Amino acid sequence: TGDVTLDVGFVNTASCKSEITYIDGGEGILRYRGYPIEQLAAKSSFLETSYLLIYGELPTATQLEEFDQRIRRHTLLLEDMKGFFNGFPRDAHPMPVLSSAVSALGTFYQDSLDPFDPEAVEISTIRLMAKLPTIAAYAFRKSQGQPFLYPNNDYNLVENFLWMTFGQPTEDYQLDPVVAKALDLLFILHADHEQNCSTSTVRLVGSSEANLFSSISAGIHALSGPLHGGANSAVLTMLDQIKESGGDVKDFVSKVKNKEEGVKLMGFGHRVYKNYDPRAALVKQTAHEIFSKVGGGNPLLDLAMELEQTALEDDYFVERKLYPNVDFYTGLIYESMGFPSNMFTVLFAIGRLPGWIAQWREMINDPATKIGRPRQLYVGSPARDYVAADAR
Ligand code: CMC
């Protein structure tokens, strides 16, 4: 094994070449297909950004319209899928429900699973983009004991998701355009982030030539952990705990620095960013906008800002180049939109979906792709002889 290099956590190992997303962690730069995230956040839509990531170029007006229409036509789940949600306990966390449902889609569309058939990949792409918000909304409705609402295809992707999540069949639904716009923006900011844990999972599973649904389902599980997408709800739990124990931010920061019980400042730090995460800056701005427009201020936002300021001035964080990441402020926004905290990571998954699909498609079309198969350094026992049970 002399030619094997140990790189725990793949800190310094590139697993592929990619044309999709560029990050300069030192400078805090993020670009999708060359376009700066700030420009996409200001001018694009989630649908358009998804097209850009998946197909490589910004769409013409006609291409965008076609993409939109195709997605609107596929938002319904097959009726048989509805029974699927009832198989879970009422308090099931929506992330495993989401992942299981995506995996199950592969059983409903068995004629379009071939990863090397471009038409099959294309229809699977549209089905996933269209159905993930429906699945997410149904997982939420199930947890609330509320009826499932059919998609209303007068709405766009994000509006439809809000309708299926919060609408009531018996009342007129007033879609809040401020909320829809803010959610659209947050989805843009989450849409891709090169070879992070969940995306690498999608590629690794896909490298065995497993189908797109199976690969994305695995990615959703990878995203669920608190060190990855699960951080957005962990931040809110942390803020609640600080508030309940008297709101002493300095006391909490010293616990983090002393690594008491492994406590971390959730929503801070990043493997690649050693500078302010450009997404966090945009999210922070959105948090202020949404709180000033929807239902006034939020005391936890003030607490979060105080916590951020305290950490940014503290040597522990300065020396380690720890800055707020995308998850630091998102939970506060999602909460103000009415989502319970177990839905936050589901929202991340909806946003990240086009990135996962784009990366999977790039992987499957790259002639250099091989099955992912990391090596190891064996440090276990040398060869020894089996001992019968009565002689041990
Ligand atoms: N709070 C306190 N200390 C930290 C933190 C933190 N959030 N993050 C890193 N450190 C310390 C870490 O203890 C280590 O210190 P020392 O050198 O004394 O051992 C040093 O900084 C380097 O950290 P690391 O663990 O080697 O860094 P990593 O690249 O392996 O981990 C991370 C990156 C994001 C997992 C980590 O920063 C973390 O756990 N952050 C909190 C969870 C979080 O916010 N995750 C969301 C990430 S962004 C969105 C996403 O990916 O979903």
From TrEMBL:
It holds the Pfam family Citrate_synt. InterPro entries: Citrate_synth-like_lrg_a-sub, Citrate_synth-like_sm_a-sub, Citrate_synthase, Citrate_synthase_AS, Citrate_synthase_bac-typ, Citrate_synthase_sf, Citrate_synthase_typ-I. It catalyses: oxaloacetate + acetyl-CoA + H2O = citrate + CoA + H(+). Keywords: Acyltransferase, Transferase, Tricarboxylic acid cycle. The active site is at 270, 327. Pathway: Carbohydrate metabolism; tricarboxylic acid cycle; isocitrate from oxaloacetate: step 1/2. The keyword Acyltransferase applies. GO terms for cellular component: cytoplasm. The keyword Nucleus does not apply. GO terms for molecular function: citrate synthase activity. Belongs to the citrate synthase family. This is Citrate synthase. It comes from Ornithinimicrobium ciconiae.
